[in-house]
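Example for tutorial group B:
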């Protein structure tokens, strides 16, 4: 049975193509949504760009027929614009002048008039709650959603291997069909391993023997950079060995690295360490610079109104990066802060030499970035459209590192299933050009308190 879907503005702002994602059903746009698109079309950044995309799609449909009567979509279904149902009454506690409530009036009017089921599609949780109050079914837009966090790809797995295979691992590797896991009943299971997935291999005759490897073309191979110490940093956990392996690989082999993990698991610290190792200790021209970007919902759209030049505008967002640089530049914890001026001068020198540069998200879009070690910190605050725009900007010799914690999202209408970091992780899974690792809570390096808080809070 066909259904009627009423779209909220925020759906089109996140995914302008949503108009054509409802198969053979009817898509209704309230007049209030057109007014909001009109107000947003001149906005900066992705919000304004997507509003304009949605408007252009509507113009295309308008030329195909009368949108008030309904226009058939090329892929099936129909779209039409609906005016307000002036005779429909909302509960007194829902004032009719609010845009959200005008959309609810449309939904109520359609449900009373139409024989088909009416469903409101919105990213706004509160509007979905209000829809339930007035008896309207409401859903989130799920086209760009990925699995729940517990089911998402982690880029790492633990397996058992026969003793003889385990002993020969470093010389010959282990075919993926020769390793196994064990279910709750003790039965052996042959796991489905993904290209570039990191593996902790345990000898099935000894619980104390483990080795680390990576899946490559149907075989688990040893890590190439397990003995490296980029910029003096040595791995302290399996997760850091895996992270180091992915970051140290050249851009030609591993142009995209996705790292998920809780705060304090050394994501940014290790990424900077490897970047500085490549530029300072191994100046072979592999990369021209380290470029850092930290998405921020309010900052990205308002940068033009902030005082100062670009460096001064984005400096508040670089404070976490500078904190990590302080530790990398002076590894001696007892002596590091004895001379704050000297430490600050060393950091300033790195920036003045152009080894590390920082840019706002909206300055990176539309460019082709060549031979750059690009770190996108806090990538969980990116939308799927933004992450696609960044990855497709990679030019020859560029390595993109997406870092973030899906549990700490600051951007409205994004969650653990719809943010750009998890979207990229799930869709790039299995690509030979993408290496992924999820850091575990027990791999937190910040402090004993931070580790304990991650476990408890």
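The residue assignment follows.
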């Amino acid at each position: 049975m066909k259904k009627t879907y009423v779209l909220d503005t925020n759906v089109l702002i996140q995914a302008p193509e949503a108009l054509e994602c409802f198969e053979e059903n009817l898509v209704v746009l309230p007049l209030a949504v057109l007014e909001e698109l009109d107000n947003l079309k001149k906005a900066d950044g992705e919000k304004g760009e997507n509003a304009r995309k949605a408007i252009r799609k509507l113009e295309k449909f308008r030329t195909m027929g009368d949108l008030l009567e309904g226009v058939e979509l090329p892929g099936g279904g129909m779209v039409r614009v609906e005016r307000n149902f002036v005779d429909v009454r909302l509960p007194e506690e829902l004032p009719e002048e609010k845009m959200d409530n005008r959309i609810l009036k449309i939904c109520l009017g359609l449900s009373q008039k139409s024989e088909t089921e009416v469903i409101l599609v919105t990213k706004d949780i509160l509007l979905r709650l209000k829809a339930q109050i007035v008896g309207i079914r409401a859903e989130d837009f799920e086209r760009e959603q990925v699995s729940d966090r517990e089911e998402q790809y982690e880029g790492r797995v633990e397996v058992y291997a026969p003793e003889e295979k385990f002993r020969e691992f470093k010389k010959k590797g282990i075919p993926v069909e020769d390793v196994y896991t064990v279910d709750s009943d003790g039965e052996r299971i042959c796991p489905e391993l993904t290209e570039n997935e990191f593996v902790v291999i345990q000898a099935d005759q000894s619980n104390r023997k483990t080795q680390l490897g990576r899946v490559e073309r149907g075989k688990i191979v040893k890590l190439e950079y397990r003995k490296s110490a980029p910029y003096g940093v040595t791995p302290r956990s399996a997760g850091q060995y895996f992270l180091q392996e992915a970051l140290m690989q050249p851009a030609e082999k591993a142009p995209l690295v996705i790292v998920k993990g809780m705060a304090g698991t050394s994501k940014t610290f290790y990424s900077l360490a490897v970047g500085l190792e490549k530029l300072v200790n191994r100046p072979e021209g592999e990369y021209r610079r380290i470029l850092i970007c930290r998405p921020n919902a309010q900052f990205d759209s308002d940068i033009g109104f902030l005082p100062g030049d670009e460096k001064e505008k984005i400096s508040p967002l670089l404070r976490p990066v500078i904190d990590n640089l302080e530790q990398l530049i002076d590894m001696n914890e007892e002596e590091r802060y004895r001379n704050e001026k000297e430490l600050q001068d060393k950091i300033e020198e790195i920036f003045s030499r152009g080894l590390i540069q920082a840019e706002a998200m909206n300055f990176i879009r539309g460019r082709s970035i060549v031979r750059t070690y690009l770190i996108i910190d806090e990538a969980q605050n990116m939308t799927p459209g933004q992450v696609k725009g960044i990855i497709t900007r990679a030019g020859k010799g560029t390595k993109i590192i997406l870092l973030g914690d899906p549990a700490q999202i600051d951007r409205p209408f994004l969650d653990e299933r719809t943010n750009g970091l998890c979207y990229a992780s799930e869709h790039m899974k299995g690509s030979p050009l993408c290496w992924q690792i999820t850091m575990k809570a027990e791999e937190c390096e910040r402090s004993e308190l931070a580790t304990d808080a991650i476990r408890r809070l």
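The chain is about 35% helix and 20% strand. Compare this with the pattern of hydrophobic and polar residues in the output above.
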